[in-house]
Amino acid sequence: MDSTLIVFSAVLLAAFTQSLTGFGSALVTMAFLPAALGIRTAQPLVALLAGTLETILFLRYREAINVTAVWRLLVGALVAIPLGVVGARVMDERIVLTMLGIVLVIYPLYALFTPKLPRVKEGKVTFGVGFVAGLLGGAYNTSGPPVIVYAHSRGWSPQEFKANLQAFFLFIDAMTITSHAVSGNITPFVWQNFLFILPAIFIGLVAGLALDRLLNPARFRNIVLVMLIVLGLRMMITAL
Predict the structure, then answer these.
(1) 3-state percent breakdown (helix, strand, coil) of the chain, nearest 5
(2) How far is the C-alpha of 39 from the C-alpha of 240, rounded, in Å?
């Protein structure tokens, strides 16, 4: 399959997934784009994509956002994001792809089996979750898994879940994009690809929001999670 078709289709699916479930765009795109464009182009491109999606969804859910529920996460992430960006840049690409593949496998397995987690209170653990999310966000644009696990353990309502995650992800994306820009990772080739995927972002976003009440988000999410496991395993095998 032509690489441009892979990129366009992956972004469309990512935007659709994000608008329907509230998360998943970076996990989907980082499963496809490194093979199509290379990891060095995929990292900043997915950050720009995620930032665009999160800005739109943030405006949609802004009234339900609880800042007190996420500020500790934001502080922890603020420290870690530049470390993740620099770390991924200096590491061997095979190591980066292997670690990304591990993330793509572990999180879907957790999400599919959805173990009952003990309730946690806000405190030091929240800073730690934010720090790990910041590292993953800066390195692989995959800050979602630890924060989603934390959100489940906090018992947020579906509306709080979507709203608070959009606020957190928007902050992560803004910091990650800034770090990539400072590091010189956002090249003209990245901007060229970003302009190319804008229609896919729009189509996927509109489709997801339109079908939000018609499709079963849980069933669709499970299909995506199984796909991510397969892609994660493939990525690890390819990196060997």
Answers:
(1) 85, 0, 15
(2) 15
Number of structural domains in the chain: 1
Give the helix ranges, DSSP H, for 24-123: 25-37, 39-61, 71-90, 93-113
How many Cβ atoms are within 10 Å of 157's Cβ, its own excluded?
10
Q: CB within 8 A of 135, min separation 6: which ones?
A: 80, 81, 83, 84, 87
The answer to whether residues 130 and 75 touch, using CB atoms and an 8 Å cutoff, is yes
Give CA–CA dist 108/149, Å, rounded: 11
Which of 182, 11, 165 has its CA nearest to residue 81?
182
Amino acid at 119: R
Consecutive 10-residue averages of pLDDT for the chain (240 residues): 86 88 80 87 92 87 80 90 84 77 81 72 84 85 80 76 83 87 92 95 89 72 76 76
Whole-number Å distance between alpha carbons of 219 and 155? 21
**CA–CA dist 174, 69 (Å, integer):** 19
User: Are the CB atoms for 36 and 14 separated by under 8 Å?
Assistant: no
- List the domain range (segments joined by +) for residue 65: 3-239
Question: Which amino acid is residue 18, in one-letter code?
Answer: Q
The answer to pTM > 0.85 is: no
Straight-line distance from the first to the last Cα atom of the chain, in angstroms, rounded to the nearest whole number: 23
CB of 141 closer than 8 Å to CB of 30: yes
Q: Give the number of other Cβ atoms within 10 Å of residue 17's Cβ.
A: 24
| DSSP label of 65 | -
Confidence at residue 186, expressed as pLDDT on a 0 to 100 scale: 93
